[in-house]
Write a structure and sequence with these properties.
two-stranded parallel ribbon; 1 helix; 2 strands; 36% helix; 28% strand; Methionine--tRNA ligase; nucleotide-binding
């Protein structure tokens, strides 16, 4: 039975010119989600979740 894995990324709230740091979080979430899929886990990856609400 596959394990469940849930990962989120914060909303891209840009209050300055976009830079590589904005993309870094989404790339990291995608990489970790893909790794867990390779392990056979049931993965839910939410991009754009409001982490402060």
């Amino acid at each position: 039975m596959p394990k469940k894995f849930y990962i989120t990324a914060a909303i891209p709230y840009v209050n300055a010119p976009p830079h590589i740091g904005h993309a870094l979080e989404f790339i990291q979430v995608d990489a970790v989600a893909r790794f867990h899929k390779l392990l056979g886990d049931k993965v839910t990856a939410l991009t754009g979740g409001d982490e402060n609400a």
